[in-house]
Task: inverse folding
């Protein structure tokens, strides 16, 4: 039997190693079925893999064979089946946004093209559009990509756009057709699409979670001047780095397995002692002692680097929460 993979080789690294093993042609076919973000993540990981042994390859292939044996080949592809399944799993309210992204986004070539674009390019494309159209676009793309796009928009436009994101409750097919007109595409099947429940306070909070802290503060300040209640509602929904301390111990342990020691050490430079103790208590004694020593011996770090590391960890936490592996905030509600 081959040796077990080291714990430092996470799921993404195992996927990257598997694709390197099966050859260029087969790997290319697999990548065609992944999202732009997944392709970029897998590709970067493939480029970084070093010191791969035959035992590690055998372990990855064994895991793949074991996983594939548990899969079926039913080929179910019904929209009704997907809607019913997600509604039963997530509840009507939470499933609605997921369903819209899956079924509506599938027919929107313009949206798919946006997901492949650099945030600066998206900002250049939409900066002259009506703020409501910009808000719709930012609500439809991933929050981290939306945050970078927002940062490249004119400063004076950001608060208005984020207010529109936060108050966006439904988008009619005509508005979605206008979005695709921006991309010079036609939205297929638009006449059969009901109002899409994109946007809202949660979406605005998620976008601001990914943006630079100074920009975030300025946007919230401007929104507060116009609508204090809305500004407070957005802040109440934002998940900040300190909130990781409210995740239960099992969730923290799951999170720690997904981040590197370098990122964690940098992020902890801006944390208080109680937060650090929460992290230390969910590590092995030896690992905690080594991290303490490294923190004490580390040279001063730039605040921007610390904030970037913290936002990276927040992104991992949200991904794990979206997949149901952890619960943010320590409550019963899954976010």
Result:
């Amino acid at each position: 039997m081959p040796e077990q993979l080291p714990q430092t080789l996470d799921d993404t690294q195992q996927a990257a190693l598997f694709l390197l093993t099966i050859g260029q042609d087969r790997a290319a076919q697999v990548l065609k079925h992944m999202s732009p973000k997944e392709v970029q993540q897998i590709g970067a990981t493939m480029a970084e893999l070093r010191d791969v042994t035959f035992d590690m390859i055998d372990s990855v292939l064994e895991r793949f064979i074991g996983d594939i044996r548990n899969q079926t080949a039913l080929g179910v592809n019904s929209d009704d089946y997907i809607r019913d399944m997600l509604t039963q799993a997530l509840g009507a309210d939470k499933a609605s946004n997921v369903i819209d992204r899956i079924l509506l986004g599938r027919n929107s070539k313009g949206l798919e093209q946006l997901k492949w674009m650099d945030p600066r390019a998206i900002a250049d494309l939409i900066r002259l559009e009506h703020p409501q159209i910009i808000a719709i676009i930012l609500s439809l793309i991933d929050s981290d990509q939306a945050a970078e796009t927002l940062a490249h928009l004119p400063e004076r436009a950001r608060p208005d756009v984020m207010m529109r994101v936060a108050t966006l409750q439904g988008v009619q097919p005509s508005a979605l057709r206008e979005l695709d007109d921006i991309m010079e595409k036609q939205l297929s099947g638009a006449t059969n699409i009901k109002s899409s429940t994109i946007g809202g306070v949660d979406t605005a909070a998620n976008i601001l979670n990914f943006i630079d802290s100074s920009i975030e503060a300025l946007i919230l300040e401007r929104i507060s001047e116009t609508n204090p209640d809305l500004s407070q509602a957005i802040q109440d929904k934002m998940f900040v780095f300190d909130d990781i301390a409210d995740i239960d111990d099992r969730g923290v342990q799951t999170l720690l397995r997904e981040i590197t020691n370098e990122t964690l050490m940098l992020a902890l430079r801006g944390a208080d002692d109680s937060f650090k103790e929460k992290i230390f208590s969910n590590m092995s004694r030896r690992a905690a002692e080594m991290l303490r020593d490294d923190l004490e011996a580390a040279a001063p770090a730039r605040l921007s680097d610390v904030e970037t590391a913290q936002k990276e960890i927040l992104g991992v936490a949200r991904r794990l929460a979206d997949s149901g592996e952890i619960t943010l905030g320590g409550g019963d509600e899954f976010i």
